[in-house]
Amino acid sequence: MSSGDNYEYEKSNIHQNIDAYSPYVEKQQSSFVNDLNNSVYANSSLSLVQFDLEQIFNSSSVSDPGDMYLVVPICMVAACRTTNAVITSASPGASQLCSLKSNFIHLIAQADIQVGGKTLESSQPHLNIVKHFKMISELSVNDLATIGSTIGFSDRLDSTRSMRYAAANSATNGNSGNGLTNNRPFGVGEFQNVIVSSQNDNACNTAIQGKLNRYVDTSANTNNYTSLVSVTQLNNEFKPYYEFKSGYHCWYDYGVIRISDIFESMGNIGLIQRLDCNLRLWLNTGAVNVSVGGTINTLTQSYLLPQAQSTFTNTCPLMINYLPSAATPATGFVATLPTGTVGIVAGLFIAKPPTTSISGVNLGASNAAHPLGNCRIYYSQITLKPEKHIEYINNNRAKKVVYRSFITTVASNLPVNGTWSSIVSAGVTHPTSVLLVSLIASNTTSGLMDFQYKSPFDSCPSTTSPLSISNLQVSVGGKNQLQSALTYNYDNFISQVNNAEQLVSAQDYGLSNGLFSQQWWESSKYYYVNCERSQSGDKLAPRNITVSFTNNSNVNMDVLIFVQYAQDVTIDVATGLVITN
User: Fold this and answer.
1) Do 382 and 27 meet the contact criterion of CB atoms below 8 Å apart?
2) What is the pTM of this model?
3) Residues 261, 104: Cα–Cα separation, whole Å
4) Which of 297, 323, 389 lies closest to 58, judged by CA?
5) What is the pLDDT of residues 361-401, one digit of tens each?
6) pLDDT digits (tens, 9 = 90+) for 476-523
7) Which residues are CB-neighbours of 311 under 8 A, at least 6 positions away?
8) Which domains does the chain have, with CATH numbers?
9) What is d(CA 175, CA 180) in angstroms, rounded to the nearest whole number?
10) CA distance 563 to 574
11) SS3 label, residue 234
12) Phi and psi dihedrals of 505, rounded to 5?
């Protein structure tokens, strides 16, 4: 059967009408709602941001929650220090010292949503990790080229060839950090282009370059950009930029996150006249105190994050880039760190930094302030043709919305060759998948000695780790989902992900292999098991989910386990009230 021939035939049968171009009279996307925080944020550890969307109402128009997006005013501040004071001298090229990890979704640690007073999606830890996996499974290379920068990506994924592992929890000459690192933006490129004695020597993470290029450097710019556009004008157009202020390096950015990427339910509600909705978002904010050793600005320069020198309690979205030296024919050697530097204090905050006291450094003394003082949610206002408006409202006073939520479990500190087996979720109805993410264990006596995603040197959780899992099996209600316990490889991954897309009638409900190449997956592993296939009666019955596997790596591992399950809710699109849940 030729699908192309059938498509052409069916398309030719469609009745054409010049008035059928759009059911909309008007669609505006410029309206926004400010958060309820009144520009007050904790900015240490997790910062709670709340929204009340009930005010989004107009009797003559509707809105589409799938169009909504969150804008977070990001303020990154860093200072090079001596033992107990800020070094106030400027340093060339310092605008490249800090950047954000790929995907603005990593700003969010967890979130929940209530509609009509009923909880649709409850708060679960590590929301950013499971949602990041979903996004890179669905995005294409063309998507990265067009909208990637808008949502916090570069034009490519982070390189895995530039990953380096430093087992020592001490300063070691030439190390760009302790634990797994991926913070070298400059080198020969992602691929080796010369013969070297050691594979991937001088390979760099070229994705960081794309993210650094977001910022206009207002302190040193060969293009003389600031003669054409002032800082005030940059603020007017929401353009990210960098400035140096008396020893403090300040970056201002705008984190754009689609609400449907946080809450799948919001993407599936469709047009609604009133949205009686409340959101709570816990954002990753905090600061790190990095020790700098060796001879600065040379290849012996080293970074180290000692224990208890980070206020991030979940993901650290901030990266401190390793810039040992840079030489070009035009400028020669560039000393990025000022003389006397023994440490770097850097933080990521909402709108402005708080007062800090970290090795004599007060980041609040920078007086950095983002031009956007609070978080916003932008939404659409759509005017339908009168007959379409009446028809839509009357037909959807009890609209069923189907979406997926997830439950998080953590298997901690699994030893080398150790086996783990446990019920990860009890009494779940309609499970759709299980996702496992293997990371270097946090409570080891080497490396970072903390959770991998808290490192300012590692691109995690935009990448994961090459740690291997064997003898993987997932059981739902006592029935194995895999024919036999697997030593899971890329072929298994592609098979499981593609099956998820084929199992449901709505194509956008599943996944594709997206941006995953074999080489990338083998160094940044996700273990995905599709659990959708079952009888209709079984899907509605509460069932236990058991996961078992073996650590097939040379170091202890932590494994994040996400159980996704489908649920539905009935909503009145006229009032925004939940009828059944």
Assistant:
1) yes
2) 0.93
3) 11
4) 389
5) 999 999 999 999 999 999 999 999 999 999 999 999 999 99
6) 999 999 988 888 999 999 888 866 543 333 344 445 568 999 999 999
7) 44, 45, 286, 287, 288, 347
8) 397-580 (2.70.9)
9) 10
10) 33
11) helix
12) -75, -35
